[in-house]
Amino acid sequence: MELLDFARGPALQFGLYAFVIGTVWRILGILLLAAKPDHSAARKAGGFMAALKVIYTRSFTADAFKQDTLYPKILGYLLHIGLFVTVFLFVPHILFFKGLIGLEWPGLPNNIIFFVGVITAGVGVALLVRRLTNPVLKLISNFDDYFSWLVTMAPIITGIIIPIRFGVRYETLLAVHILSVALLLTWLPFGKLAHAFLVFFSRGTTGLVLERRGAKT
Amino acid sequence: MKQKPTLGEVLQAKGVSRRGFLKYCAATASLLALPPAMVPRIAQALEAARRPSVIWLSFQECTGCTESLTRSSSPTLEGLIFDSISLDYHHTLQAASGEAAEAARHAAMEENRGNYLVLVDGSIPLGNPGFSTIAGISNVDMLTETVADAAAVVAIGSCAAFGGIPGANPNPTGAVSVSDLVTDKPVVNVPGCPPIPTVITAVLTQFLTFGQLPDLDHYGRPRAFYGQTIHDRCYRRPFYEQGRFAETFDDEGARKGWCLYKLGCKGPITYNACATVKWNQGTSFPIESGHPCLGCSEPDFWDDGGFYRPVSTARIGGGAAFGTAVAAGAAIGVAAAAMSRRRQQKTIKEG
Amino acid sequence: MSAPNPFGESPRGNVEPILNEVMHALDRLLDDGEATVIDLGRLPFGPGEIEELEGQLGTGEIKARLDALGASRIRETIYPGVWWLDHYNTAGELAGRYIEITRVPDILTSQEADIAAGRARLHELISRSEETALQ
Ligand code: SF4
Question: Is B236 in the pocket of ligand 1 (CB under 6 A)?
């Protein structure tokens, strides 16, 4: 049980601190940046609505690209929905959040979570295969992309293994799972995974800039 | 050294028939979790078995383990403790006390040098020898002296096996487990608070039958009983998978017998045989009676952050620390932004 | 809907697999004459499951009571060749519970050692009464 104690205690604590500090740091650091001086006249007055509009419209692909991006788009959606379901609707996880923030919400049966987890892991692998086989993607991928993939997949895969066991003791697997989560939390604010909380800021900013230039969004 | 009678001789003298003996052997096979096909071998071994001498030492304990054992008549039929082992010293159970009792202990050690079993319940305080003494002898001295010529040591209960409640944070007496002190002898841990009586007798029966100690896990616990978690063998497991949980002790889920995970059940990380061997002559076990497993057969179960806290919750400090983390993040963020602004200004000025 | 269970819902996970095991054991008994013993003592029964299993197997034509180191209740179920054995200790507590798939449970047959001991006792009785007759 010692490893589990370490994982649930200091390791997780470190991960959560890193996550909180990193997230606040990055959000404030970006929001407080001065905008680049722009001396051109605005085509349209950039408003909050313009930002919201792009936040919404960028959730879908422009018609021109629909055909080409269908496959990664589906995978992307599956991955994110899968992550949401497995992270937030698995009852033991909900109890974990309840312990942290005091809030509770209904979950899904474990067997459904397991099924979703396996699909999510499969999707993750498919996305990596695509990254490795698509020459353009491969060219623009750096360490951050691969490492972010790894730290995202680690909790999914270790989570799936827990009920299967493969002859390993439950508490050891649980500890490894929690350690992988601590790693994810530590890395999340600092790498590309920060899109988890930055995505809407960046889309909104794009909306404002495009609006100012009078582009069709 | 006077030769102890074999178990076959003991039973024969009592007029026990072969049928009765076979029944005993079948119960022994069940007890040791051996397949029924082993009964003939057990019969052969038991007939020739001689009662081992047992010295039972009680240190910082609550006597719950002895209580548990003396409630264990099943399935040993004729009360294994009094028929098939020779309990030569147990200061709670024996009539003699003081010097007479100590003399009995020394006599048993002398007579069975190298062959006797030492059973220990309770943890041993190292903080101050005066914290716990018997006949003026400190626990650590008595243990060291008694195990010197023992064949093996069986640590009964979580206190003897892992330090237990005396060893719980902040461990005021400096309590340690038997295996912390005994390193040159085989030590079998039979943890639990108390351990299942059947498991205690099974370890003794194994030694009696085959003259061997059972196969042990990494905490020194017999695999036959501590090989699987409560959760693995829990009849409420299908409810766990279906996501049907009792939320409180008296809601609909509790009445319907749903899974107790949310009420803090430690079944998933607790290795013990309660779900199959059960308690009180096989009547039930805590989960069957509607209470989550406390995890009492695991090291430091007492310090695991609360009996009613679900296994998956974090064992970490409270909200104040997170407030500090937010503040720290904010400070770094503001500083980073300020620095970047200054850099920007500089670039603009330098044109 | 079935009758409400006083212990709450139970998943009833054990009864069916055991009945299946019994059926395969009957195959082996009929095909190769091989007997099987199922130890019910180490299975994770939920509340009411044992009773359900016992009810499914029912009581057949033979019931026997054995008194040796406590009582034992042995009966053939409604499936010939399938026996239910409850062993109690001298304190009347259940010491072992088994299903045996066999023509007749071993423990019911007279044991060699007991036969020999009985013969010796009978021999003694006869020689004693002969002695008395001679006097
Ligand atoms: S009651 Fe406890 S041991 Fe049983 S299934 Fe639920 S969590 Fe597992």
Answer: yes
Type of residue at B212: Q
Give the CA distances from residue C71 to residues B39, B74, B99, C66, in Å, rounded to whole numbers and listed in that order.
19, 13, 43, 6
pLDDT at B77 over 50: no
CATH 4.10.480.10 segments of chain B? 230-350
Residue B293 CB–ligand 1 contact under 6 Å: yes
- As a whole number of angstroms, the distance between CA C125 and CA C122 comes to 5
Q: Which of A60-69, B155-164, C83-92, C112-121 has the largest mean confidence?
A: B155-164
Residue B47 touches chain C, beta carbons under 8 Å? no
- Expressed as residue numbers, the domain containing C43 is 15-109
**Residue C125 placed within a domain:** no
Homologous superfamily, domain B230-350: Cytochrome-c3 hydrogenase, C-terminal domain (4.10.480.10)
With a cut of 60, say whether residue B258 has pLDDT above it.
yes
In this predicted structure, the answer to whether residue A211 has a pLDDT above a threshold of 80 is: no
Q: Is B243 exposed, middle or buried (0-12, 13-18, 19+ CB in 10 A)?
A: buried
State whether residue B78 sits within 8 Å of chain C by CB. Answer: yes
The whole-angstrom separation of Cα B257 and Cα B61 is 34
The structure's pTM equals 0.81
In a domain, C2, yes or no: no
SS3 A95: helix
Please give the pLDDT value at position B85: 65
Number of domain units in chain C? 1
Architecture of domain B7-226: 3-Layer(aba) Sandwich (3.40)
- Beta-carbon contacts below 8 Å between A and B: 121
Rounded CA separation A116/A137 (Å): 27
